[in-house]
Amino acid sequence: GQNIDQPTEMTATEGAIVQINCTYQTSGFNGLFWYQQHAGEAPTFLSYNVLDGLEEKGRFSSFLSRSKGYSYLLLKELQMKDSASYLCAVENSNYQLIWGAGTKLIIKP
Amino acid sequence: ETGVTQTPRHLVMGMTNKKSLKCEQHLGHNAMYWYKQSAKKPLELMFVYNFKEQTENNSVPSRFSPECPNSSHLFLHLHTLQPEDSALYLCASSPRHREGTEAFFGQGTRLTVV
After folding, report:
1. CA B34 to CA A98: how far, in whole Å?
2. Which comes out higher in pLDDT, residue B90 or B102?
3. Taking a C-beta distance cutoff of 8 angstroms, is the pair A69, A24 a contact?
4. For residues A52 and B67, what is the distance between their CA atoms, to the nearest angstrom?
5. What's the rounded Cα separation, in Å, for the pair A51 and A31?
6. Cα–Cα dist B34/A69, whole Å
7. Averaged pLDDT of chain A
8. What is the DSSP letter of B52?
9. Contacts with B45 from chain A: Cβ below 8 Å
10. Nearest-CB residue to B43 (from A45, A91, A99)
11. Mean pLDDT across the stretch A94-106?
12. Cβ of B100 and A97 within 8 Å?
């Protein structure tokens, strides 16, 4: 089967750094997405990784290792507004999106 | 504002009711999707429309019936639902299906079946 694993919940402190991991087993790989979803709101696109390595976008960075079936989302200088769920999704070789259940990130002052 | 609008935001319906969810996008996208999101579960893709043609139906029960009259509008018709169908129903759009492009989501309809 195909599956995406990510932690259910994480807690971090305002101003700190947090890393949200995502491991995947899929039928092939075309790319990996990260989305942010605030409670009661639409998921919004954060990043898309196709090649191995780190992609930085402001306070957020996303890393991919295709050989290990592994990605992480790194959030720096955490702000209270970063409290949200973070969804990892992998496109398999058929361009089907396989979704993780999401990681709920709680930021404490 | 994500460019994808869903109505209603909340819906409570009995198991014998018939209701419809509406989704509208004015992003010029050609692919539209219905997803089901249940608590602590992965997003479940229900239906895909690409250039107004339904291209995927992921074993969704017939009590859910999609309709795509044009590339900007998508409906999900509901009838004789079950309590386990209670969930957040998300609509999304993307420029084209299966081309590795990001999806833009609506805020969803929170459906409760009583």
Report:
1. 14
2. B90
3. yes
4. 39
5. 8
6. 27
7. 95
8. T
9. 96-97
10. A99
11. 92
12. no
Which SS3 state, helix, strand or coil, does residue B84 take? helix
Q: Inter-chain contact B100–A30, Cβ cutoff 8 Å? A: yes
Which residue among A4, A42, A91 places its CB closest to the CB of B106? A42
CA distances from B45 to A19, A78, B28 (A): 27, 31, 21
**Cα–Cα distance between A102 and A35 in angstroms, integer?**
9
B31 touches A at CB < 8 Å: no
Cβ pair B42:A100 closer than 8 A: yes
CB atoms within 10 A of CB B26: 10
What part of A 45-64 touches B (C-beta under 8 Å)? Answer: 45, 48, 50
Name the pLDDT band for B1 (thresholds 50, 70, 90): low
Residue contact B43–A44, C-beta within 8 A: no
Nearest to A89 by CA among A80, A108, A79, A102: A102
Structure confidence at residue A73 as a pLDDT band (50, 70, 90): very high
The nearest CA of chain B is from the CA of A99 a distance in Å of: 5
CA distance B37 to B45: 9
Q: In angstroms, rounded to a whole number, what is the distance separating the alpha carbons of residues B85 and B10? A: 14
Which residues partner with B6 through β-bridges?
A: B23
